[in-house]
C-alpha cells in the first residue's frame, strides 16, 4: 500500500542564496517493503508540477508486475521544497512570523532541495539506493544528488533532462514569469495571487512541452469553414485552467527559478568535471522531438558520465514524451536494469 508521511526538520536550513529556512517539512510517499539489508530502494524525483504519488503520473512504470514493482522494490518519492503538495513552500506558515511566506519565500536551488532530500534519506537510515530516477526537473535533481554524493545510488536514470539549464530554458521560464507579473493580483499576499497569470504561463510552457507535430495531430480543425473558436485555442485555455485547480503561482514562480539556476558544475570548475564524479551505472534517455531539453543535452551528459548508456524515445509529443511514451521507456528501462545489451544511440549535433 502506498503511504504518505511527513519528515520534519526543525533546525535552521541554510540555502545557497545566503538565505535560510527556519526549518522545513517534506511530504513523501513510500510503496512496498524495505528489505532486511535495505538494498531494494527506488527513489523517484518528480517533475515541475508533479507530486509524491508517482503512480498518478508514471503509472506505466510503477505497480505490480511493472518495471518498478512494490512487491520487490521499496519506492520513495518526496515532494520538492518550494512546491505545494505538502512540503514547505510559499504558502506554508513561516515559523518566524506565524504567517504564510508568500513573496517572502527564499530562493531555492536544486542543490538545496537535494540537501533536504538527503536529510530525509538519513532519517530513513538508507545508505544507498538501488535506483535513483528522475525526469525533467526531477532528472536535474537526481543528477545533482549523484554529483554531490557519488555513492548514493548504484544505478542512476536521467530522463529528458540536462546538466545545466540553457539560455533557451531560462528564456522560456522568464517569459512565463513575465505573464504572472502582468496579473494585477500578483503583488498581493493571498493564496490565489497571480493565478490568472499562471494560466497564461502554463499555456506558454505547453508550447515547449509538446511539438509542432503533436499539435497538428491533436488540435487540427476538422472543418474547413471555421474562422474562430479554434480547438488549439480552447486547448491552451483548458490546460491553464487545469493547472490553476491544483497549483499556485508562487510555487510555479520559485520552481521555474530553481530550474534556471541548475548547473552541476557550480563549485567544480566545469560541468564535465562534475559529471566525472559520478560512480553509478547511468542511463540517460532523451526524446527525439524534445525542444525544451533537446537531445543534444542528453548526449552531452552520456558522453561525460563514466559508465553511461544513452537511449532515445521516438515520439511526436516533444518533451512530454517522457510521460506519454511509457511503453518505449519501459522497454529501455527493463533492458538497462536487467543488464541486457543495448546499443548506444548517438544523434548528430544540429546547430
From TrEMBL:
Domain of life: Bacteria
Top-level class of the enzyme under EC nomenclature: transferase
Active site feature: 136, 290, 319
Cellular location(s): Cytoplasm
Keywords: Acyltransferase, Amino-acid biosynthesis, Cytoplasm, Methionine biosynthesis, Transferase
Residues binding substrate, per UniProt: 202, 320
EC nos: 2.3.1.31
A GO molecular-function descriptor: homoserine O-acetyltransferase activity
Family the UniProt entry places it in: Belongs to the AB hydrolase superfamily. MetX family.
Function noted in UniProt: Transfers an acetyl group from acetyl-CoA to L-homoserine, forming acetyl-L-homoserine.
Assembly and oligomerization: Homodimer.
Full protein name: Homoserine O-acetyltransferase
